[in-house]
């Protein structure tokens, strides 16, 4: 009987969660510094990366956009990880990353 309660709780959680979250909306870090990028919420970093990707790549699907956006977010985050990245412009780093990752030729 306990498993029924667990299943019911899971059903409530699933029904309360939107099936398609707008993970790509709300990016505001286009003009940010590396320091601002580091302290920004992960959702904002991902949405901003999606904006950059959408400008330079024609994604074949939302899954493709998501994958490339996550890769770009990681590239930018790694580039600004140490204190020397604090003053770097995120847009310049994003441009370098999309070239290095082969998204633009």
Automatic annotation (TrEMBL):
Q: Does the keyword Signal apply?
A: yes
Keyword list (alphabetical) reads: Signal
* Signal sequence coordinates: 1-21
Designated name of the protein: Uncharacterized protein
Q: Identify the species of origin.
A: Tahibacter aquaticus
